[in-house]
């Protein structure tokens, strides 16, 4: 049984290799240009479209007075904010700062 199965598989692989190698495929035809010259837009219209796209790409700020305010102009520093956040985190922690209750000590 075993030699018949090996012979059958070998024959089947040979047929598949011959069938695949005999197939021919043509490449997709290459066109010189997909741009339709009849529908070409005018140069002025093209430049106008480019200028519109460049304005969209880098929008101008309408109000330059307003910017990103990190609190530095009001005297509120980053280290002060960090201390505040650390204090809030410590206050929410069970073993954080604060008066100890006598019931917890016993």
From TrEMBL:
Residues 1-19 form the signal peptide. It comes from the Eukaryota. Coiled coil: none annotated. GO terms for biological process: body fluid secretion. GO terms for cellular component: extracellular space. GO terms for molecular function: diuretic hormone activity; G protein-coupled receptor binding. It is found in: Secreted. Keywords: Secreted, Signal. InterPro entries: DH2-like (IPR034439). The keyword Lipoprotein does not apply. Belongs to the diuretic hormone class 2 family. This is DIUX protein. It comes from Pseudoatta argentina.
């Amino acid at each position: 049984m075993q030699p018949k199965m090996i012979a059958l598989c070998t024959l089947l692989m040979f047929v598949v290799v011959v069938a695949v190698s005999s197939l021919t495929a043509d490449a997709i035809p290459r066109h010189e240009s997909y741009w339709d010259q009849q529908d070409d837009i005018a140069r002025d219209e093209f430049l106008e479209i480019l200028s519109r796209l460049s304005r969209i790409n880098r929008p101008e700020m309408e109000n330059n007075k307003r910017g990103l305010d990190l609190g530095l102009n009001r005297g509120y520093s980053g280290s002060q904010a960090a201390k505040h956040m650390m204090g809030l985190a410590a206050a929410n922690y069970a073993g954080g700062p604060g008066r100890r209750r006598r019931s917890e000590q016993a």
